[in-house]
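FIELD: query
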Amino acid sequence: MAPQPEAAPAPVRGDGPALLREISSRLPQVKLLTEPVDRESYRRDETAYLPTGLPLAVALPDTTEQVAELVRLCARFDVPVVPRGAGTGLSGGAAGIEGALTIAFTRMNRVLEIDHENLLVVTQPGVVNADLKKAVAAEGLFYAPDPASYETCTIGGNLGTNAGGLCCVKYGVTRDAVLGLEVVMADGTVLRLGGRNVKDVAGYGLIPLLVGSQGTLALVTEATLRLRAAPPPRATLLAFFPSLEAAGEAVAGITRAGIVPVTLELMDQTTIRAVDDVHRLGLDRDAAATLLVESDLPGTAAVAEVDAAEAACRVAGAGLVVRAQDATEADWLREGRRLAYRALEAQGVARMEDVGVPRSRIPELLQAIEQIAARHRIRVGTFGHAGDGNLHPTFVLGRDEPDDVAAARLHAARAELFEAALQLGGTVTGEHGIGAVRPDWLVRQRGEPAVAVMRAIKQALDPQGILNPGRVLA
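FIELD: result
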C-alpha cells in the first residue's frame, strides 16, 4: 500500500507574504524557516496517511514574548497558527495547514525549576518527556505521565493531547499532573493560570479546559507540573493467556479485586509475535495474549500486589507466568510493550487506532475487534492500556495493496470499531485526541448540544478562528 496522495490544499488564508515581512522586521531574533525543503519536514506528524498542507513558514521562538508577538501578527494578517512539539502525535493535530504559520517549540526546551518543598517542576513546552523525567529523577523525584513515545515526545505535545501512557491506571493522565500553565491566547494575551497550590478552586477551571484542546484555544509556553517522591524499583510479571477473552477477564478480575498496579498493559498474539521478531525477547509466541503487570509499592507490598495480580490471572486461565528477576529484565519486558507499534510497522502499513471502554467491558471490546478484523479481512494487532480500558487496535495492511481498496476497507473497519466502542459505553479516543482524524465522531459521541457548547467556547476564545483550525471541531 503506497502513501496516500495529497488532497488538493485548502485555499490559502490571510496575507502570508506580509506576515513574513513583518516577522522578519519585528522579530529578527526568531529563527524562521521558509525554504520548501525545511517546511516540508513540518508537513506531517505520525499520521502519515492524512492529507496535509505545506506551512507558509515555521517559526522557532525562544521566549513567551516571542510567541505572543507571533500570534498577534498572525491575528493581524489573518494567518492560521499550528503549534507543534516533536510531531509524534497520532491524530493529525500538529500536521501542516496550507499557508499557515507553524510555531515549533523546539527551542523552548529548558527545565526552569525543580521545587522539592512543593513537589513540582516548572518547565518549558519543548522539553522531551524523558529528559524531564531524568532531570527530576536526579533529584530523587518522579514525574508520572509516561506516554509510550516518552523518549521523543515533548511536554507541550503531551499537554496538547492530554497524553496518557503506561502509568495512567495508577497516576492518571497528563491533566492530573498539571498545577499551573502560562498560555498565549488567540489575540496574543499572556495568561498565567493556577500555580503552586495543591488546591485552588478560584473561578472557572480553565486548566482542564486547555489541556487536551490541541492548540485550538491557546498555546502553552510554560507548565507547572506535579511531582512525587521517586518510587522504588518495580516488581514486574508477564502473564500469557490462551485467548484474548481470558486476558480481558484477568483485567476485570484485577479491577474487581481492588488491585491498582502502576502498569497493566495488554498485547495480543499478532503484537507479541511482531515484538519478538524485532527484539528477540523469547516471548511465548503461541499465546493469544499477554498482560504486563507492575507494582511500584515499597518492599514486600510490591510482592504482595504482584502475587494478587498473578492469582487473578491464574483464575482467568493464564498459563505461563514470568516474573522479572532484576531491573534489567523488567526494562526489557516494558520496552517490548513500548515498541509494539514500531514492531507492527515492520510488518506492513500500520494504522493505530485509539478507543476506550469501561474496564469491565474490555473482554467485549476485544471480541468486537476480532470480529471486525475477520469481517473486513484485515490483520490487526491489539495492544494498550488495559488497566484503564484504553486499547490501540492497529490495522496492518500489505505494502503492495492498491490504495483505493485498502482505504475503503480501513474506513469501514474503523467506523465499526468506533461504533463498537460507543455501544459499550466507551470513547472514540482515550489519549490521542480528536485532532483532524475524528471530528465527525465527536458529534456522534458527545451529541450536537455538547459540541455546540464547545463551538461557543472556541468562538469566545478564538473569534478569528486562527488557532489550529479544523482540529477537534470540524
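FIELD: remark
The chain has four domains: 16-104, 111-229, 235-423, 438-474.
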